[in-house]
Amino acid sequence: MNVIRFDKYKGGKHRAVTMSYDDAKEADFRLVEIFNLHGVKGTFHINSGRFGMENIIPPEKLSKLYEGHEMAIHGVNHLTLPYLPAHDMVKEVFNDRSEIEKLAGYVVRGMSYPNGAYSDEVVSAARAGGIKYARTIDCSGNFRQPEDFMRWNPTCHHNDAISYAERLVKMSYYTGHLLYIYGHSYEFDKNNNWSLIENVCDILSGDERIWFATNGELYDYITACRSTEVSADDKIIRNPSATDVWFSCENETLCVKAGETLYL
Ligand SMILES: [Zn+2]
Question: What is the Å distance from ligand 1's center to 10 Cα?
Fold first, then answer.
């Protein structure tokens, strides 16, 4: 009997790591440089209403800076969304998305809640504004994939990331884990601890089993895994999505290509 497990990532990798940084301040230049040196990927959340303010990266520099990473939204004006009338929640999301898409040149689908504040109504408004996944600041302390992408809890803030990074690379057997780290790049300036994120990247980039992905790449991949259909006898695997899916079958790692069906 085959046992099918969707516990692999792109390329058959055993685990995934993603970074999530907010506010698009100047310190992102240094952070992105560190990520790029290590092959680490991140999603960056931008407030289009803050362009022109002190320490905020000018809009014309964003797409080059975040090339290879992901541009996402953080509300036009960084307002605490649960306090707003519902139509203004939608405006904060939709208008930010509209502005950031003009700079990014692709469909912007990600968000992080300003000040970490959300509610059921905010989630509905974000969905109505075209958002598919949104990060909270409610740290899960675990390596599980999100149940609900609109309430995507990170594993930890970067201040706690070294111990999680060490735990992840020490796990020899288990697969399917996801380490999700969030923060603000200016915190490294404020606390004079840029070595912290360099150490985290050093620990993780040495592990060949890790897939470094943006939030959006993870959303696409995990959603594709969850939409893959398996026959009752586990012998026919149908992938209706646009993303190749890797999975475990006994001790083997197999791939069912986008839009194809695999007969085992
Ligand atoms: Zn913020």
Answer: 30
